[in-house]
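dumping this here before i forget
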Amino acid sequence: MPRIIIMNAGTAQMSGSDLVAAQLSLAGNSVYRSAWFAQEGDLIVSPLSIPTDLLSYVGATLNFDASSLSLLVPGGGREAPILNDYALLSNSMVEQINRHIRQKSSWSMYPCYSSEGVARLASVLGIQQTGDEFALQRGPDLLNRKSHFRQLATSVALPLPNGSITTNSNELFRAVNSLRHETGRVIVKLDNGAGGVGNVILSSNEDGPLPGARETRQIAWPSFDPDVLWSEMTTASCKTLVVESYHLARTLFYLEYEIERDGSITFINSGNIRLRRSTDRSERALIWTGLELPSDLGNEQWLTAQAHAYRFVSLVRNLGYRGPINIDAIFANDGRLLFNEANGRWGGGSVLHSIAVRLLGFDYSGSYVISSVRNVRSSSLRTAHERFAKEGFLFDGTRKQGVIPLAVDEDAGTVECLVIAYDRAAAGDLKQRLLILV
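structure:
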């Protein structure tokens, strides 16, 4: 059955309406990597034009005819990196989609985020899907707020860092002051931020950048001014901050599930989250370098994390949500399992998993390690492809290993790549070879 792929990452329902430049850039780049979800005959609704050479390369790599794909970009050429509900439901866009899907009898929706607009579009197009009633009432918004995550997670006894939800500067001061004694570090999160961009870590130690935040600040607690932080972090559309004790992590990982239309829960994948410090000493945040699937959790850690996460996903299923859900967690240095947040949408590892299944089979995690590598220097996808072929590590469909360039960030002059290897050592070797390319 062909799908309508809706690339609505970074919308207000997911990230708030006050996006900073880093979030807009991330949303824009996610469009190109999400092209790898495409299958024969799909219709892609995207906020940006997707280069024909990228779609052709996707088809050639995944063994389908890319000319069977169709692409619709709303806005009459006035492209922006965000596909919001207003653009999706415009008369012009609805008519274009409707005209296209009349050519075939059966279609399904495949959105990044199940927004109210996606549900309304499905209704207008006559595509019936379980879970749309929940989306019409903006239910999925519950799964993309830090405060709602704490509320829902507490109801199923998910292990969380100590914390509280604050709605004014007085509450912020009280929360920070009470939590700072536990570890000497506190993280303050904007309720609807994404990618750590809305988070700040306050520390009494001389820490460098730490995971999970745009900035780590050393602070003298008696002089902490909650009014300054409150005005700095909150936005016109979001006046809620979540404050939690911050724990140093031994392992950062995620778990992804799919809640199927019939209500069954399918485990999709898990992976480690990799970060590194910048060579620029003035940089206040760690650099996200990619993901590695499957996660390297030990059996006991894995079973413990799965048991807790499944309770949360079951609760979400019972609320009425259908679609992908990702849960982030850590094993702290003291061995404690702590969950950080959940998101009801495609995750960073979703497209990596999709590619791996199509190239290697559903059981790939038992025989392969899949890694994404960001910030590989290259001016274009074509240049990266040619260079990898010359160096001898372009993905080989016969040997089932190698490197696939996924998407280019033209502004940064870098490419995100997918590494497929038989073990972690081989994956690490390929990653190092990529990162030293000039």
